[in-house]
Amino acid sequence: MSETAAASTPLLPEYDVVVVGSGGGALTGAALAAKAGLRTLVLERTPLIGGTSAYSGGACWLPGTEVQQRAGLPDSTEGARAYLAAVLEKPDQDRVEALLAQAPRLVSALEADPLMEFEWIPFSEYYDAPGRVPMGRSIQPKAIRRDELDPRVGAILRPPVERDRAGRPGRSTLSGGQALIGRLAAMVLRDGGTIAVGHDVSGFGRDESGRVTTVLATGPDGPVEVRATRGILVAAGGFEGSPERRSLHGTPGRAEWSMAPRGTNTGDVIDAAAAIGAATDWSGEGWFCPGLLQPDGSGTFTLGFRSGLMVDQTGQRYGNECLPYDRFGRVMAAAPERTPSWFVFDSSEGGRLPAIAMPEGDPAEHLAAGTWVQADTIEELAVAAGLDPVVLTATVERFNGFAATGVDEDFGRGTDEYDTFFASAGSPNKALVPVAQGPFHAAQFVLSDLGTKGGLVTDASGRVLDEGGDPLPGLYAASNSTASVFGSAYPGPGAPLGAAMAFASLAVEDMLR
Ligand code: FAD
User: Fold this and answer.
1) Which of 45, 307, 491, 506 lies at a CB distance of 3.0 to 4.6 Å from 200, suitable for a disulfide?
2) How far is the CA of 237 from the centre of ligand 1 (A)?
3) What does 109-127 look like in DSSP terms, one character per residue?
4) Per-residue pLDDT tens for 180-202?
5) Average pLDDT over the chain, rounded to whole?
6) Residue ranges lining ligand 1, Cβ < 6 Å
7) Which of the four pLDDT bands, split at 50, 70 and 90, describes residue 9?
8) Which domains does the chain have, with CATH numbers?
9) Shortest CA distance to 441 belongs to which of 392, 373, 380?
């Protein structure tokens, strides 16, 4: 892999804008900066661009735009404001308003480019709250063929997670996060920007006036130092890949269970900014999810359970398995006996997990590794999983009783729009399907995440603030490198990317002032 993907020439000593990281926020900032005529450099530590954003579904929670209008949705900025007011705890109202105001402007600016087009993606929002749009308000970039983009992009685009983890190349049609990253990177290159992969940023320097002007990185040929005249945008993920930082900041889960690509997001760049005076706030924790334990010890993001039930190590259910994944993840994190959990399911889907796991893995390999167990009866299944057969049998019988009546008396599964979004088989309640058809299966689940979301404290313009609450001139941040505008909530599909893109674009607008 070439060290500088987009430029065969060495890096220049100076750019107008230097962007650290290459996820959805980073490349939105870079694309807008390059389009505005700024000399733009993207520094990415791995040989591939896109990070977790390239694994993503590409959904963007950007309310009140022309895309929702085109789709005829009952969405509006006012509705989104009401929704956030109901679901966020102690929000920074300036940042919330900045996000709401920027979403339509950003989408309009991006769609003005022939390389970008969005569409509505039906996907329920995560809370039953005022302002919620039925079937969701999130948008995604339209799929695009790889060969429609600059070939230099295709050469460095991180493949979807199931292919990346298996060492396989990406697909010829790019959809979701692949389309988002591919389209944005193509815009950067077309407008003269440089994307330098294999450049690990380790520090920042300030000039005599205190302005942050210098980025220090290690490239394939050793240390490099580049100056930025207009601004430096840090959008380099969270610290999900660092066991030490997770432990330091009290983040539940484990680095190996996180979804971030291996070798990407370890939070060093957040600490590098803190080392020159940036304030930090770790309280947002992460975007959590149940993670299917894999034979290699990793966890994989799982959502949309169609049947089956989750039990803890005592063999009892502890929540509504059909909750939005972040909310179920938080329930999972609430008690130690819930990790690992066992997800019990029957053979109605031929021994495959009745859910969307990214990736699921091979059931035979799971069975061989013991991450899944299988048996003809629930009692035998319990023994194979190390659970109490009497308790597990009672749990399954109780659950099957709920499936018969259509009412989950314990956790209310199937009462919310999200619960039934992926489900279809249950009757009288779509989300409640009896566990009836042997052989029976149990799969181990751990607490996974789609990234952490504590980090640099920023203002409504994406400016990084110091401990005194003043902007550090020249330094901006967005994405999971920042303390999330949503705090500990995950309002709906596309919240991570939507916020990252909005604040990256606000940062570039500020640099242009
Ligand atoms: P990333 O996208 O991970 O990018 C960070 C990049 O910075 C990485 O490439 C990394 O190598 C680089 N980097 C890190 N440190 C340095 C350094 N020191 N120097 C240089 N480069 C560095 N979210 C949504 O909003 N919508 C969805 O549809 C969605 N679907 C998802 C589906 C899956 C399967 C997964 C796993 C996640 C999904 N998410 C989704 C979550 C979302 O993808 C992430 O939370 C988000 O993309 C993180 O963006 P980021 O820019 O913070 O980090």
Assistant:
1) 45
2) 5
3) HHHTSTT--EEE-----SS
4) 999 999 999 999 999 999 999 99
5) 96
6) 20-26, 43-46, 51-53, 55-59, 161, 200-201, 235-237, 259-260, 264-265, 268-269, 287, 301, 358, 450-451, 479-480, 493-497, 500
7) low
8) 14-283+453-512 (3.50.50.60), 288-449 (3.90.700.10)
9) 373
